[in-house]
Design a protein that fits this description.
Blueprint (H helix, E strand, L loop, with lengths): L3 E7 L3 E8 L4 E8 L6 H19 L6 E5 L2 E3 L4 E4 L12 H9 L3 E5 H12 L8 E6 L3 E7 L2 E2 L30 H5 L1 H13 L4 H6 L9 H9 L3 H25 L3 E5 L7 H14 L9 E4 L6 H12 L6
Helix pairs in contact: 1-2, 3-10, 5-8, 7-8, 8-9
Bound molecules: zinc ion (ZN).
Length: about 325
């Protein structure tokens, strides 16, 4: 029987778990609410229960667990340092030392956006790429950087915080403490806020119709539908967001000369509305190196990218901080 690996994608809302072979073929999967208000120990107990249930179901123990977590981790020791979206922020939670005796195999941690990058590198768009940038475009903006097929981590595993590069020097304040970060301009909530403004001031009749006047329904997806249905102001707002993402990407293209940009997360569902203005912006701003053959593509793994990255992480026996 082939060696099995386990993966966990820990999110603020849900925990996803999978068992798979080293080739990425998933044998069993599970999903449960995180219920993070119960605290780290209860969440880790739930994770151990999910892994053990999957192992019992498939009749084999995993050789290792790779786990993506939403924040900063001490890779060498398997300890979480700061998970901003979870209660208590999980400061200095010894995840590896807690989980290993409960599931009986080595545990390796990685930031979730870096895990998604590793998943896309091994099993998705990145299989035939050498130097790749991945953006996770959601409530926040995360990322990962691959150079010469190596996921780059830096001393803290924090390399790749692409959402916190400055785009507007005097722009809106950001959760990271700076201002005008890419995240403040093109996150799902940032794009939706502009949609709400346009809906309420009467400049987005199609968006009003699609959302039935309910601002809670304004999202990048409904704004994309409104733009395609002819709402010029919504189309302009999305174009501007895509150009900001293009500026951030152009900076990275100039610095790293990637052959592939992968867009993951809910905002990436805008597709061409995002990718076409991004491509034009990159061509306008990157003049030092050729960009005509730069691939800009949506993730093929979708919301499974992080989970697949966990399998790759377990299969590799963890990653060393650089
Ligand atoms: Zn920031």
């Amino acid at each position: 029987m082939n060696t099995l690996y386990a993966s966990i994608d820990l999110g603020g809302t849900n925990i996803s778990a999978a068992l798979a072979g080293g080739d990425g073929r998933i044998l069993a999967e599970a999903k449960q609410p995180t219920q993070s208000h119960e605290g780290p120990l209860a969440v880790l107990e739930r994770i151990a229960g999910m892994i053990n249930a999957l192992a019992a179901k498939s009749g084999a123990r995993p050789a290792a667990l790779g786990m993506g977590v939403p924040g900063l981790v001490d890779l060498a020791n398997g300890v979480t340092k700061f998970l901003p979206n979870l209660p208590t922020h999980w400061r200095d939670v010894p995840v590896r030392a807690t989980l290993e005796p409960k599931i009986g195999c080595p545990v390796f941690l990685l930031n979730d956006a870096r895990a998604a990058t590793l998943g896309e590198l091994e099993f998705g768009r990145g299989r035939d790429s050498r130097t790749m940038i991945l953006f996770t475009l959601g409530t926040g903006i995360g990322g990962g950087v691959v150079v010469d097929r190596q996921l780059r981590l830096g001393p803290l595993g924090a390399a790749g915080e692409l959402g916190h590069q400055t785009i507007l020097p005097d722009g809106p304040p950001c959760g990271c403490g700076s201002r005008g970060c890419l995240e403040t301009l093109i996150s799902g909530p940032a794009i939706s806020a502009e949609g709400v403004r346009l809906l309420l001031n009467g400049n987005a009749p199609k968006l009003h119709e699609i959302c039935e006047g309910n601002i809670a329904k304004v999202s990048p997806a409904t704004m994309g539908a409104a733009a395609r249905a002819g709402d010029a102001n919504v189309a302009t707002a999305l174009q501007r967001a895509a150009e900001w993402l293009g500026i951030g990407t152009a900076n990275l293209v100039t610095a790293l000369h990637p052959d592939l940009i992968v867009l993951a997360g809910g905002v990436a569902e805008l597709g061409d509305l995002l990718i076409n203005p991004m491509r034009e912006t990159i061509q306008r701003r990157v003049r030092m190196i050729p960009t005509h053959d730069l691939r800009i593509e949506r993730s093929v793994l979708g919301d499974k990218a992080g989970l697949m990255g966990g399998i790759a992480l377990a299969h590799r026996g963890g990653l060393k901080p650089s």
